[in-house]
Amino acid sequence: MTRLALGLDVGGSHVTAGLVDVDTRHVQRTARRDVPHSAPMATILRAWAEATLEAAGPQAPQVTHLGLAVPGPFDAPNGTSHMTHKFPALRGVPLRPALRAALAGTLAPELPIHFGNDADLFALGEWWGGADRPERLLGVTLGTGLGSGFIRRGQPQHTGPGVPPGGELWNVPTPEGQLEDALSGAAVTRLGATLTGRQGSAADWAQAARHGHTGALAVWAEFGRHAGQRLQPWTDAFGAQVLVLGGNVSQAFDLFAPTLNVGACQVRRSAHLELAPLLGAAALSGRDPVRSA
C-alpha cells in the first residue's frame, strides 16, 4: 500500500500543505491559504486545517503522519512556539492538541504530528527528495533573511563539529555585521548601490543582468565571490559534499554561480524550491523514513 504523509510549510503570510508519497518521495498535491502571522490563534489553525484537508483530499484515510515546517525559535519535541517576532497568538501554546482539535473528525484522531525548523526541513527535503543523498549536505536559503540546515546522514544537526549553535548561520559574525547582512536580498541591494550608485532590489539587478547591463553583471559576480568567501569555511568545517541554495535570491543562481567557490563542495540551486520544506516535513516520522534509502 502506498504510504502517504502530509507536510505543512508555515510562513508569515500564508501556509502551504502538500500530500507526499513517502515511497516515491514526490509531492502529489498542494493547497495554500493566506493567513497573516498576526491573526488570532483560531484563524491561524483554521487556515492550517483547511489547507491540510484540501491537500489530503480523498486520500485522507491513508495518511500516516503530519509534519510541519515552522519558523524558530520553536520547541519541536513539545510542539510549542517561542517566537516573539511572529505568531504572537501561538506563543507558549501546545500546538499538537490544538491542531488535532482543529482537524477533529477529518483525520485519524491520534495521527502523529511532528514539527521541525523550516530551514532544517528545506535542507532535509532537498536531501530526502534527491536521487543522490550525500552523507553531509548544507542547505542555505537566501532571501529577506538567511536560513540554514546542516544534514548528516538524513538527520538535521544542531551541534557538533562544523555546526554553529543551533545550526543557525544567520547571526554568525562577519565584517558586514552578521552573515545575514552579507548574504541576503538586502546585501544585493547594497552591493548594487556601492558598485553602480544606483538603487534596486535583487530582482531588479537580476533582470538588468539578463539584459546585459554591465554594472548588474558586476553586482552578481561580486555577490558570488562574497558568498563563496562566507560559506566555504562552513562547508569545509562541516565536511559538506553538497551545498544547496534556495530562497528568492537563488533565482539568480546562474548569474552568481560562476564566481561562487566553496572548494571541493558541489554547489547547486534547490531542485525542489518551495516543495522542499513539504518533503522535509513529510520525512519526519516515528518510523524514520528519513534514513531509508
Automatic annotation (TrEMBL):
Gene3D superfamilies: 3.30.420.40. SUPFAM superfamilies: Actin-like ATPase domain. InterPro entries: ATPase_NBD, ROK. Pfam families: ROK. This is Glucokinase.
